[in-house]
Every structure is written in structure tokens, then in C-alpha cells.
Amino acid sequence: MKGTSRRPVAIETLLAEHGRLVEDALDRYLPSSDTPPQAVHQAMRHSVFAGGKRLRPILVIAAAGVVGAAPATVLPSACATELIHTYSLIHDDLPAMDNSPTRRGRPTCHVLYGEAMAVLAGDALHALAFELLVRNAEVPGCQPARVLRAIGEVTHGIGTAGMVGGQVLDLLAVGGPLDEAAVRQMHRLKTGSLIRACLRVGAILGDAEPATLEALDRYGEHVGLAFQIIDDILDVVGEQAKLGKETGSDATLAKVTFPSVFGVDRSRVIAADATRQAVEALVSLGGAADRLRDLAEFLLHRER
């Protein structure tokens, strides 16, 4: 792919810098471990600070940057997307779902704190996420009308027309054959919908023009699909030490994934094509979108 080796050091530096910014903000926003009721706050912090990539909040910040908005303009909402992602992982790891004992190299929330507390920790993170979305209206220059639109984008992206709907399709598809269109739709909802919402939220809070918002939306759709395909491939061929979780879990659970339907090699081709489409969606945005182009290529070739 053209530009695959462009500025790899720059994008890794950017990810580290924005990751630290998000990490520090999350530490401020989350209740401390000794704040009553301590048990749920300890469970929340255990899962939030388990070493994730912070991709979703970084996408919010990067989308805002395309239209010239500083990270501080969108930081509460960026952190909200990470809390939503984390709550979904806590629930996804539960015995009733994927029954995962580890996540990012650490015991999952329900293993340490019990199933009931894990459910409540996820619920609490979900609630705090919407508190942070609302608090974005307190940022100077961030009009409440934009915040209201951003909240609408998030709710649509994580409900039955988005993330939850994709999880439902994932559960119903276990063990059953699906065609490429159905697999694409499941992944677009399960993972891609929140990623797409992150791009839209950053753009809306940054006061993007409609054409810019449309370009970022298309980018989010394609990069979200590519991200999930690579995730599925890594579950087959990735190194457990790098991934921080057991590999082969999708096959054990008879999950319908791109590798299970099309094989690893064909799945890599589909992921590369989705990444190409993501990059092409940014053509009209010029150099302002270089970070997003580099990020798409970086994610395509990641090893964890």
C-alpha cells in the first residue's frame, strides 16, 4: 500500500503522547479506589487502567485536530468513549458472554471482583461516560448544541443499531455459517460503530463542515472494519505475550470471524482493502488528515 512506511516513528510518538494525555485525564475523572463504595471503584479502575491502546479517545482527539481543535476541547468526550469501550469489555468477558479469564495480561474484572461487581463496574463506567459527555459543554468555546449532537452520535453508536446490536449478531452467529456481507455487517456494528462515532464526535465538537464530517465518517467506517479483522487475525496467529490474552479463544468459542470464514490470508487482503478505502476517504482533507492516514496504516500492521 502506498505510504505504508511513512512516518512510523511520528505516529507512535503521537499515540504515546495522546495516550498519556488520556491516561492522566481518566485518572482525574474516575473516583479514587478509596472513595466509597470502594469495591466498585476498585473494579472500575482495575479495568480502565489495564493498559489499553486508548484508540477510541485518540480518534476523537485526532478528528478534532483535523479541523484545528485542540485536544482539551474534546478531552471529556474522548475519555467517555474509553469508558464505554471498557464497560463493553468487562461485560464481554463475563461467563455469560465470552468467559475470558484474562484481558491485556491481567485477570479480568469478574475473576478478581466477582460477576455481580463486574456487572456493576461496567454499569458505573457507562453512567460516568455520559456524565463526561455532558461536562464537555463546560469547555470554553464548546457550544452546548454541539455537545448534544455528540451525545446523540454516541448513543446511536453503542445501542442496538450499533455496538450492542453487533454483539447480539455475534452471539446468534456462533457456530453458524455466514456470508461475507453478514460478517462485515456484524463487525461494522460490534466494533466499527463506536470507532465511527468517535470520529464523528471529534469532528462535531471541533465544529467541522458537513463535507469534512462525511469524509471522517467514511474513514471511520472502513478503519473500524479493518481494525476488527486484524483483531480476529491476531487471535489466530498473534503472540499471547504481546496480546495480553489467550489466543485461539474465537475458535474455542466457535465464533464467526473473518479468518474462520475466509481464512487468514484472504482476511488480510480484506483488511488491507478496507484500510485503502479509509485512506482514500481523507483525500479531500489534505495534509490536515495525515495523522489519521498514518494511524490507519499503523493499525493494519500492528501485532497487538
Outline the structure in words.
The chain has helices at 8-29, 38-48, 55-66, 71-92, 109-113, 115-135, 144-158, 163-173, 180-205, 210-237, 240-243, 249-252, 258-262, 264-280, 290-300, and strands at residues 102-103, 106-107. The longest helix is centred in the last third of the chain and has 28 residues, at 210-237. The protein has one domain: Farnesyl Diphosphate Synthase (Orthogonal Bundle). The two termini are 20 Å apart. It contains 15 helices and two strands. Helix 3 (55-66) runs antiparallel to helix 4 (71-92), helix 3 (55-66) crosses helix 9 and helix 7 (144-158) runs antiparallel to helix 9 (180-205). The chain is an all-alpha fold and 304 residues long. Mean pLDDT is 92; it is low at 1-6 and 241-245. The chain has a two-stranded antiparallel sheet with strand order 1-2.
Termini, distance in Å? 20 Å
CATH topology category name: Farnesyl Diphosphate Synthase
Q: Name the CATH class.
A: Mainly Alpha
**Overall SS class:** mainly alpha
Largest sheet: 2 strands, antiparallel
Measured on Cα atoms, how large is the radius of gyration? 18 Å
Secondary structure tally: strands: 2
The proportion of residues forming helix, as a percent range, comes to over 70%
The low-pLDDT segments are 1-6, 241-245
Whole-number mean pLDDT = 92
Strand order of the largest sheet: 1-2
- The H-level CATH homologous superfamily, spelled out, is Farnesyl Diphosphate Synthase
Report the sheet-strand fraction: under 5%
Number of domains: 1
Q: H/E series, N to C?
A: HHHHEEHHHHHHHHHHH
The rough form would be described as globular
